[in-house]
């Protein structure tokens, strides 16, 4: 199973996507990831639950790198 979230915004996309990832993680708990586009694609993925893949340190980075558009499968 899996869940996919897509967002287009002029605000910080991670503020909208991270809660959705938490809500969807019961659909697939083996891995979590994100692909965003801001001039070029950025990908962050890893094995484990959302809280493991997107640590507070990673979230701080995502707020500046993954700004406006993102697909977080």
TrEMBL record:
InterPro entries for the chain: GATase_2_dom, Ntn_hydrolases_N
Glutamine amidotransferase type-2 domain location: 2-73
The name this protein goes by in its record: Glutamine amidotransferase type-2 domain-containing protein
């Amino acid at each position: 199973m899996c869940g996919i979230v897509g967002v287009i915004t002029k605000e910080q996309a991670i503020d909208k996507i991270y809660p959705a990832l938490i809500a969807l993680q019961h659909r697939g708990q083996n891995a979590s990831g994100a692909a965003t586009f801001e001039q070029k694609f950025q990908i962050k993925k890893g094995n484990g639950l959302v809280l493991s893949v997107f640590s507070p340190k990673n979230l701080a980075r995502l707020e500046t790198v993954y700004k406006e558009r993102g697909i977080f499968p």
